[in-house]
UniProtKB/TrEMBL annotation, chain A:
Transmembrane segments: none annotated. It comes from Bradyrhizobium cajani. This is Rieske 2Fe-2S domain-containing protein. One of its GO terms (molecular function) is metal ion binding. InterPro entries: Rieske_2Fe-2S, Rieske_2Fe-2S_sf. Pfam families: Rieske. Keywords: 2Fe-2S, Iron, Iron-sulfur, Metal-binding. Residues 3-115 form the Rieske domain. Coiled coil: none annotated.
TrEMBL record, chain B:
Gene3D superfamilies: Metal-dependent hydrolases. The keyword Cell cycle does not apply. Residues 19-366 form the Amidohydrolase-related domain. Transmembrane segments: none annotated. InterPro entries: ACMSD, Amidohydro-rel, Metal_Hydrolase. GO terms for molecular function: carboxy-lyase activity; hydrolase activity. PANTHER family: 2-AMINO-3-CARBOXYLMUCONATE-6-SEMIALDEHYDE DECARBOXYLASE (PTHR21240), ISO-OROTATE DECARBOXYLASE (EUROFUNG) (PTHR21240:SF28). This is Amidohydrolase family protein. It holds the Pfam family Amidohydro_2. GO terms for biological process: secondary metabolic process. GO terms for cellular component: cytoplasm. Signal peptide: none annotated. It comes from Bradyrhizobium cajani.
UniProtKB/TrEMBL annotation, chain C:
It comes from Bradyrhizobium cajani. Signal peptide: none annotated. One of its GO terms (molecular function) is hydrolase activity. Residues 16-359 form the Amidohydrolase-related domain. Transmembrane segments: none annotated. One of its GO terms (biological process) is secondary metabolic process. GO terms for cellular component: cytoplasm. This is Amidohydrolase family protein. Gene3D superfamilies: Metal-dependent hydrolases. Keywords: Hydrolase, Lyase. It comes from the Bacteria.
Length: 137, 367, 374
């Protein structure tokens, strides 16, 4: 396991995403109102860049015509076939048991808490005042 | 089977050779086609526009679940709709997916469904030239389809004859929502011209004819409208067979595009079973219905069927005939199939190559 | 005819035959059930001279009657109870038979005339058929193009427990999921009636989305596509979400289209389910819970293999219901089901599945058993 500093917290505002590359894998970092999540940028269905899909809320219905909208911005819809994935869990909405996108552990760390070697290979300058998104892989 | 993560693209997969039988080119702006239209029709287009048997002549009454029915990642940086940038098409699709040949299926304006037949014919001529000038000349991997305004048989025949022998064109394109089922005799001059020109006829999802999309009326939702495509195609196949089109035009070849595959064995069985009792109504059929399908009709693969069990897919291919399946992606549309991942079944290298390349190579006579 | 026991009529003993077609011989039998106004209209408009057989089943077309079931005289196929008993009910030792009457009432444009004809037909079915053979049950025919009148007819007739289903044509005026039709489904669910969807069109529209075919055989082939569209309609529009206890029986649909249906419908749902969020499960799951299918015809060159393949594809042996489709010509001799079916599957198709599909039938079996044990 290596920790990778992949973004600053302030470059991913709430409701936004950033796609980063770690050890040859593309990973999408999402900010859900201050909570950060990371999932693979690769739809398990046919390999599309999942994290480039539209970010949407969850629509449900207790009966036909009664649309109930919640969890704004917490799902990503695959840019190809429109399969919805829960950004928090990586699970697909239609088949949560068997179809999920890999999700990654992620931490927010103060720049001052990061060790020298953890900072290698990152392309942006790190400063002690800033908060960073760190992925373990 | 649990699919958590797809394999990385392997070097072997990069060596794919693909013929994509269904690519949708788009216009950056409508005026792109103006250079190929007479002044009279440019004016007509400007003043009256498209005129269809449809509530909105410029929009769908079942809006798709993605804008432009397209992949969200297929919008060119420079603007314009998905499918309008050759550079993006090359970079995003032709190059990485190993596409040696791609067949263009332009859908803009529904020329075959235009109520003004002269306008429809003018549009087909313009869009045929546009395909060559805008696409094929700039990208030799691409091939064009001869659009026709099929409700005007004479106009269609003239356009087929004008393009016959032009190596830029590999087929004639008809959209299945015709005024009458495609096997009816009003369309026979088109079949005669196709046979004469040695061009197959592609029937690709689309068109609008004023008939509800089911025999029991209009559906409310796109989920139903999308499904009904498969029944339209079944009606087309059934019509071609029972009208005796293949008896009259024994060299005619048809390719059904984007209609799904799951219905083919059951339709064939249904036609055979009931023809056995009702054959006296159609004495012009000399063989059982499924024989004509097996001999004269091919199918493009997208949208690929995805049965839960892989064996059900290979069983389906077996029943349709491995040699009748032509790979297609539908680029840049939302239900795009990736040649590496579309088949959720363990195909042998030979089977994969046959579907991705060999069948279409033979069907279209490509290098 | 074969002597192979696996092909004998005895193996169907105790079956519930879910698709029998009694024919209305003519308007004269309905006259006693029409009110003064409609009786006068019959005379004034000579309605009794109209042949109200549906275009979907031309009287003399080979499919409409098996050759050896043709009546000797001028009568319509299916118009004689004695013949029906001899040809199927007695021969196959059916425990029950369900009458699905296809007649003009379902298709007349006048909603009032349609309702009057449906009322009269249901009453005639009760007197001329149900009262004369205790094995018989019937579908209520309704003017589906007027929901209020249809519901009124369902409620009028449903007091008689021998009516166990409401019958709709697969192609009427509205796709079957549409909310205008929901009062019919509400009434059916409330009264424990199944909804039967039978092949046939009122021809309000071309039978296909690509227009009017030339030949009858094309119309008949297109029926399976119509079933497919209507199944997708019932699921997509949320009928089963709204009426969770509703059972739909698709009758004479051809069956083998179901494999392609579930693959396409399940895949489409994954991409567009946000349009119809009340569809919370894959269409194939919903289908397994709510929809049943009668077994004639089985569109496969090898019927046993075709049926077993469907059981495999659909992951259920509970979906299929025995039917002869009498007097329609779907099979010869005693081959109402192909030989070669495993015995447990056969028993399910013959009896268990029909009883599970028709709550009123199950109830009458229970009450008979209670009487016997008392």
């Amino acid at each position: 396991m290596t920790r990778h500093v992949v973004a600053t917290v302030d470059e991913i505002p709430s409701g936004a995403r950033k796609i980063v590359e770690v050890q040859g894998r593309e990973i999408g970092i999402f900010n859900l109102e201050g909570e950060f999540f990371a999932i693979a940028n690769r739809c398990p269905h046919e390999g599309a860049s999942l994290c480039k899909g539209r970010i949407v809320g969850l629509v449900e219905a207790d009966e036909p015509g009664a649309y109930r909208y919640s969890r704004r911005n917490e799902l990503v819809r695959c840019p190809w076939h429109g399969w919805e994935f829960d950004i928090r869990t990586g699970k697909s909405w239609c088949d949560p048991r068997r179809t999920k996108v890999r999700s990654y552990d992620l931490k927010l760390e103060q720049g001052s808490a990061l060790g020298e070697e953890e900072l290698r290979a990152e392309t942006f300058p790190v400063s002690v005042e800033k908060q960073y998104v760190v992925i373990e892989l | 089977m649990s699919i958590v993560e797809l394999d990385r693209v392997s070097p072997a997969a990069n060596r794919l050779r693909v013929i994509d039988c269904d690519i949708h080119p788009a216009m950056t702006a409508w005026t792109e086609v103006h250079p190929f239209l007479a002044r009279r029709w440019i004016d007509h287009l400007t003043i009256y526009g498209s005129h269809l048997r449809h509530a909105f002549s410029e929009a769908l009454t079942h809006p798709r679940m993605s804008p432009d029915a397209a992949r969200v990642d297929a919008y060119p940086d420079e603007g314009g709709p998905p499918g309008s940038s050759l550079a993006l098409m090359q970079q995003q699709h032709l190059d990485p997916n190993g596409v040696d040949h791609g067949i263009l299926i332009p859908l803009r304006w529904n020329p075959g469904s235009q109520r003004n037949l002269d306008f429809g014919v003018a549009l087909t001529k313009a869009m045929n030239t546009w395909q060559v000038e805008r696409w094929v000349r700039n990208e030799p991997r691409l091939k064009a389809s001869v659009l026709i305004a099929q409700e005007d048989a004479a106009g269609s025949v003239a356009e087929i004859e004008a393009r016959a022998g032009d190596p830029n064109f590999v087929q004639i394109l008809v959209l299945p929502r015709t005024d009458e089922p495609l096997g009816r005799r009003r369309y026979w001059p088109i079949f005669a011209a196709a046979e004469q020109a040695g061009l197959p006829i592609a029937v690709h999802v689309g068109g609008t004819n004023g008939h509800p999309s089911t025999g029991g009326g209009w559906p409310s939702y796109y989920m139903e409208e999308h499904h009904a495509v498969a029944e339209s195609m079944q009606a087309i196949v059934s019509s071609l067979v029972f009208e005796g089109v293949f008896e009259r035009f024994p060299k005619l070849r048809i390719v059904i595009m984007e209609g799904g595959l799951g219905w083919i064995p059951s339709l064939c069985a249904r036609m055979d079973k009931h023809w056995a009792k009702l054959r006296s109504e159609v004495p012009h059929l000399k063989r059982c219905p499924s024989d004509y399908v097996r001999e004269h009709i091919w199918f493009t693969t997208q949208p690929m069927e995805e049965p839960e069990r892989a064996s059900h897919l290979t069983e389906l291919f077996e029943r349709i005939g491995w040699d009748r399946l032509l790979f297609s992606t539908d680029y840049p549309h939302w239900d795009f199939d990736d040649p590496r991942y579309a088949f959720k079944a363990p195909l042998s290298e030979a089977q994969r190559h046959q579907i991705l390349f060999g069948n279409a190579q033979q069907f279209y006579g490509l290098a | 005819m074969t002597t192979d026991p696996s092909c004998s009529a005895q193996r169907f003993a105790g079956a519930v035959d879910c698709d029998l077609h009694p024919a209305v011989p003519g308007m004269d039998v309905l006259m006693p059930y029409l009110d003064d106004y409609w009786r006068e209209m019959v005379a004034v408009r000579a309605l009794d001279r109209l042949n109200l057989s549906l275009t979907s089943y031309p009287q003399n077309a080979p499919l409409s009657c098996r050759p050896d079931w043709k009546p000797a005289g001028a009568g319509k196929p299916g118009s004689s109870l004695a013949a029906m008993q001899q040809h199927v009910l007695d021969r196959f030792q059916a425990s029950f038979g369900i009458l699905n009457c296809l007649y003009g009432g379902q298709a007349m444009h006048s909603e009032d005339m349609a309702a009057a004809l449906c009322r009269a037909t249901n009453d005639w079915i009760r007197d001329a058929w149900l009262d004369r053979d205790p094995r018989l049950r019937a579908s209520i025919i309704v003017p589906a193009h007027n929901t209020e009148l249809a519901v009124a007819e369902i409620e009028r007739v449903a007091g008689d427990g021998r009516f166990i289903q409401v019958l709709l044509l697969v192609s009427g005026e509205l796709t079957l999921g549409r909310r205008q039709l929901w009062p019919i489904y509400a009434a059916a669910e409330r009264l424990g009636l199944a909804i039967g969807v039978h092949a046939g069109s009122a021809y309000r529209y071309a039978p296909t989305s690509v227009g009017w075919p030339s030949y009858f055989i094309e119309d008949y082939i297109a029926q399976s596509g119509a079933f497919e569209n209507q199944l997708q309609s019932l699921i997509s529009e949320g009928v089963f979400a709204k009426f969770p206890r509703l059972r739909v029986v698709m009758i004479e649909s051809g069956l083998t289209w179901l494999s392609g249906f579930i693959w396409r419908a399940d895949k489409t749902w994954k991409g567009v389910r946000a349009e119809v969020p009340w569809v919370t499960r894959a269409p194939s799951d919903i289908l397994r819970d709510h929809v049943r299918f009668t077994v004639q015809p089985i569109d496969d060159p090898d019927e046993a293999e075709g049926l077993l393949r469907l059981v495999d594809h659909l992951k259920s042996d509970e979906l299929f219901l025995f039917s002869t489709d009498y007097p329609h010509w779907q099979f010869d001799g005693d081959a109402a089901l192909p030989p070669g079916l495993p015995e447990p599957l056969l028993q399910k198709i013959l009896r268990d599945n029909p009883l599970a599909a028709y709550p009123r039938l199950a109830a009458s079996v229970r009450s008979t058993e209670a009487e016997v044990s008392a």
